[in-house]
Design a protein that fits this description.
alpha/beta, Beta Polymerase, domain 2, 5-stranded mixed beta sheet, 5 helices, 9 strands, 24% helix
């Protein structure tokens, strides 16, 4: 039995009906669990003797709203990258938030202490709320920032801009004043562009 097969067998044994799916691609294993089973599943992944994922390497949010052109599943997911030093293998764990309008999943900070800033980052960039996190604040953007910049529907120019106000002698926020525009290369935008350039060169 290969290492991948050993891992997938151990996952099925440890998680049972908590395991929604397991997929192997390019030598990597991805497991999906329901959000309501996240804490019990991650605890089992950490503690089960055949798994022993002692380390959480990364947590990231995902916005699947435009994935593959058409996506009919839940919009927001949280992905966990796990490492077992005992068995020298890795796992990608994914769970989807049940509510697209207000995505919430449980914090795994009690399972892996390293989740702290990762969950804050996912909250900041995607607006995913981690239930039970003791200090869920923005991490990369400012406190006055409006919205979550990694969401697919976030405007490229943002919602607010920051400038120094000499009258108030402080930095202030105001609605963004940049006019949205679409920049299209001239060769695409102008008809017969290649013919015009040819005539100019006298060829």
């Amino acid at each position: 039995m290969s290492r991948i097969e050993t891992l997938t067998t151990a996952l099925a044994a440890a998680l049972g009906d908590k395991l929604v799916s397991v997929k192997t691609d390019l030598g990597e294993v991805t497991a999906v669990v329901r959000p309501q089973d996240l804490i019990s599943a991650t605890t089992a992944l950490r503690d089960a003797a055949d798994l022993r994922f002692e380390q959480l390497l990364d947590v990231c949010g995902m916005d699947y709203s435009t994935f593959g052109g058409v996506w009919d599943g839940s919009r927001f997911a949280v992905v966990y990258h796990l490492l077992s030093l005992t068995h020298n293998w890795r796992l990608r764990l994914r769970t989807f938030a049940a509510d697209d309008d207000f995505p919430v999943v449980d914090s795994v900070l009690g399972v892996w202490a390293s989740a702290n800033w990762y969950e804050r980052e996912a909250f900041d960039l995607y607006g995913i709320v981690f239930e039970g996190h003791p200090d869920l604040r923005r991490l990369l953007t400012d406190y006055g920032f409006v919205g979550h910049p990694f969401r697919k529907d976030f405007p490229v120019s943002g919602n607010v801009e920051m400038r120094y106000d000499p009258d108030q002698r402080r930095v202030i926020y105001q609605p963004v004043t940049i006019e949205p525009r679409e920049i299209t290369p001239r060769i695409i935008r102008e008809e017969n562009y290649a013919d015009v350039q040819t005539d100019k060169k006298g060829v």
